[in-house]
UniProtKB/TrEMBL annotation:
Cellular component, GO, one term: membrane
Xref: Pfam families: AA_permease (PF00324)
Amino acid permease/ SLC12A domain segment(s): 32-438
Species the sequence originates in: Psychrobacillus glaciei
Membrane-crossing residue ranges in chain numbering: 26-46, 52-72, 93-121, 133-154, 161-182, 202-221, 242-264, 284-306, 341-360, 366-388, 395-413, 419-437
Chief site of localization: membrane
Highest taxon listed in the record's lineage: Bacteria
Protein name: Amino acid permease
Keywords: Membrane, Transmembrane, Transmembrane helix
Protein topology in the membrane: Multi-pass membrane protein
Localization per record: Membrane
């Protein structure tokens, strides 16, 4: 199949992106999407549900995500084009199943900028109450959308600055937590097995449920693959960036959860589970550290918002190019900046409305449904494409690793809350009805599939 950039017909050049992203840019992009400060979003409730063993839940989630990151990397090497989960499932397994993969991940990617608008506006409103919540939503949405319209190069530079800032805040937080623990009991108190295993509260079902919740913090490493057409060296850099961002992000999350547990062992005594890490920051470093952490949370909404909106717009571009969505609308690129401007504006509008009217807990839970569904399909794609279709009988590389990734994600998936599963399957049912009419009873295939 010819690359989209070389697909020309009589001087009519197909829409294409600029290749500007290096390996470093891609790794930062993945970490920016996940955000180094992601534990702040779920810490209180997740720590309570795991009986004070959130570091263990994060470790389980990281292992699960590493298997999936490997599979994303293998599929990105085989198909270095945009579309990520949608593209890989379509090319490796079935065109129609590819649509459902994209439909599931679309829910995930759309909800990312939506939830960060909500979180950012909430904390900004708490910091400056005189400015209403809805004004903060509009302000954050405008900045994120403007940056994405200017181009992925500008977005990458903005992410780099913000990720460095959040990284510094995380380091400061960890240092203050360690200082607080050492001040109480001496240096030996920094080493404890309790955050990973507490015999009094350990329950495997609670850890697995916590790991499913912890997957929320990892959602984003997969978005790197949506930028394959903007990467300088996609075949080499995409898979490396997916694995590195997942590993680095996981270590950052585990360290934060570990020191936080040492500072505040009683996970049932937070003033509010929603702001648990702020209680811990205040206990470890006073009001100054708590305020700094709040500012970092607001900064994280910009990195996650920029990357989430960019990824969703590229997914829509790929689906539009395959004519499973409106080609004229979804493949339109800005004549100067070469960005899918209509998609970006549409996502901005959806996120603003959702941020104003939807509850944050529902949005957070639904993100895991789309993410885990997509991860399972990508793991399955590696097995089908490499092991069976190409007959590369490398059992560990092309069967065992992706199979373990699939099974782990499936186990986490079935442990999602009942309401999350119900709403998620309703979303898939809507997609089924849409696809049924769009493909005339699943008889029509996208043009790109016919060319394979």
């Amino acid at each position: 199949m010819s690359n989209v950039q070389s697909n020309t017909t009589q001087g009519n050049v197909a829409p294409h992106f600029k290749r500007v992203l290096t390996l470093k840019d891609l790794v930062i992009y993945g970490i920016a999407f996940m955000t180094p400060i992601a534990p702040a979003y779920i810490y209180g409730f997740a720590a309570q549900s795991t009986g004070g063993m959130l570091p263990l839940a994060y470790l389980v989630a990281m292992v699960a995500m590493m298997f999936s990151a490997y599979s994303y990397g293998r599929m990105a090497a085989a198909f270095p084009i945009g579309g990520s989960t949608y593209t890989y499932t379509q090319r490796a397994i079935n065109a129609h199943l590819g649509f459902f993969a994209g439909w599931a991940m679309f829910m995930d990617y759309v909800l990312v900028p939506l939830i960060v608008f909500m979180v950012g506006a909430s904390y900004a409103n708490a910091l400056i109450p005189t400015i209403p919540y809805w004004v903060w939503v509009l302000l954050i949405a405008s900045i994120i959308t403007f940056v994405n319209i200017l181009g992925i190069g500008i977005a990458a530079k903005a992410n780099q600055v913000l990720v460095i800032f959040m990284g510094i805040v995380v380091v400061i937080f960890v240092i203050f937590c360690m200082k607080a623990v050492v001040g109480e009991d001496g240096g030996s108190s920094l080493i404890s097995i309790t955050p990973f295993f507490n015999g009094d509260t350990f329950a495997m079902t609670a850890i697995i449920s916590g790991a499913a919740m912890a997957c929320f913090s990892f959602l984003g490493f997969d978005s790197i693959t949506t930028l394959s057409e903007e990467a300088v060296n996609p075949k080499e850099d995409i898979w490396k960036a997916a694995i590195l961002s997942c590993l680095i992000g996981g270590i950052i999350f585990i360290v934060q959860a570990y020191v936080a547990q040492l500072v505040w062992p009683d996970v049932n005594s937070f003033s509010s589970a929603d702001t648990a890490l702020f209680d811990i920051a205040n206990a470890a470093g006073g009001a100054l550290l708590a305020t700094l952490y709040t500012v970092a949370i607001i900064a994280s909404t910009f990195t996650a918002g920029i990357t989430g909106q960019a990824s969703a717009s590229r997914l829509m571009f790929s689906m539009g190019r395959d004519e499973v969505l409106s080609k004229k609308f979804f493949t339109h690129l800005h004549p100067k900046y070469k960005t899918p401007v209509y998609n970006i504006l549409l996502l901005c509008s959806i996120s603003i409305v959702g941020a104003i009217f939807l509850p944050i807990n529902v949005v957070a839970e639904l993100m895991n449904f789309g993410g885990l569904a997509g991860f399972m399909l990508v793991n399955l794609s590696v097995i089908v494409y490499y092991y069976f279709r190409k007959k590369e009988k490398k059992f560990i590389r092309y069967f065992l690793i992706p199979a373990l990734g699939f099974l782990i994600c499936l186990y986490l998936f079935i442990n999602l809350s009942p309401i999350t599963l119900k709403v998620g399957f309703i979303w898939l049912a809507i997609g089924f009805v849409y696809a049924l009419f769009k493909t005339k009873g699943f008889k029509k295939y996208p043009p790109s599939f016919k060319e394979m």
